Amino acid sequence: MTELPLVEQRPAISDVAQEELAAWLVARGEPVYRASQVLGGVHRPAAACFADLTDLPATLRTALDGGFRYSTIVTSHVLEADGGLTAKAVHQLHDGQRIESVLMRTPSRRRHAARTTICISSQAGCAVGCPFCATGQAGFGRQLTAGEIVDQVLHWHRTPWLALGPDWRPDARDGHYNIVFMGMGEPLNNVEPVFAAVRLLNDPDRLGVGARHITVSTSGVVPGVERMIEELPQVNLAISLHAAQDQLRDELVPINRKWPIAEVVAAGRRFADATRRRVSLEYVMIAELNDTPELAARLAGLASGWLSHVNLIPLNPTPGSRWTGSAPTRIRAFRDALRGAGVPVTVRDTRGREIEAACGQLHAQLAGRRLPEPATKATTEPVAVGVA
Ligand code: SAH
Ligand code: SF4
Q1: Nearest ligand to residue 127 Cα
Q2: Mean predicted confidence (pLDDT) in 136-146
Q3: Are 130 and 271 contained in the same domain?
Q4: 30, 80, 100, 282: which is the annotated catalytic residue?
Q5: Count of domains observed in the chain
Q6: What's residue 373's pLDDT?
Q7: For residue 209, what is the domain's CATH number?
Q8: Is the shortest distance between the CB of 128 and ligand 2 below 6 Å?
Q9: From the centroid of its chain, how far is CA 257?
Q10: Quick check: pTM over 0.70?
Q11: Whose CA is nearest to atom 21 of ligand 1?
């Protein structure tokens, strides 16, 4: 496998506080305003290295390169699927941890405009331990920093995927895309860096992604939801419910033992009431386990009477999984039961199955000996692709 240098002494510029950078600059005889100029430049998509920050003096660019890493991540693999509509990247961190991000393009269809969604990780691994999730099975590595989160989005800005493709409009470059925290990790178990990253992504002097285009998905960390109400009321909330009955949810989403369904749904409801924003209830459909008519009726009860929306996701089974995804007829019956009860519901297609695009699956493959012989085309530069 392609090995990348792991020992890196220089701090990453995207994780250096503005005051710290200002002190570093002043010590080199630079004016203090350079700090915001440098940080604004680093979070500008077009600039891929310090040398690209051409509004800075050349000597300063060289000094910055000696003092700091430009990016917190090195992208080691990019795999493409769905005819180029889905691409998944594996990013290596300075200490050898690996995380993933995925870009999904949806071409325009009838009344729906084309859109792009970038799915990013908030932690290396995850401690929640949902048994159907590859990340959960792999366990917890460490928290990501705000820079490591933002750099995943910047990675896609520097590839052709964000701007090109069939039926795609180049305005994605201006920030008209969605960001979802649905990659590896539980974002509300890493609140400070995740909230800091949202603010950086949102900053009009940087990428300027509207808060309404950002979604935080949680397995149900109730205090984290409360903090979102207080601190990020413009950001969308998705709750991974997956079961409408506590005994089953204790097994599928083990954090349920701490915050059971009633508390999680109540927190979602408080979020919806306080923000007037519709909360998405995610429900992974597992054959013969959580897809029964009884559970559909219970779920309808939980989702009714407040601003919620149910998103049904067929399980993408992890290697060796004891479960499979529900059959399409079961999913349709489940959806119709919810609809009949007046609950807004959609069925999400599982994108990128052929590149293991669900949460943490490619990472799990990499932790083993080698990548599967992919039915995928690896196409981008400057990344090293595939395995040696
Ligand atoms: N930890 C957060 C966000 C990351 S997981 C959360 O759980 O919400 C993002 C979504 O992917 C969650 O809804 C999760 O349940 C779902 N997911 C994980 N593994 C999956 C799989 N094998 N098939 C389908 N969806 C999966
Ligand atoms: Fe963690 Fe989410 Fe995977 Fe559960 S589904 S293990 S919370 S990443």
Answers
A1: 2
A2: 95
A3: yes
A4: 100
A5: 2
A6: 32
A7: 3.20.20.70
A8: yes
A9: 25
A10: yes
A11: 316
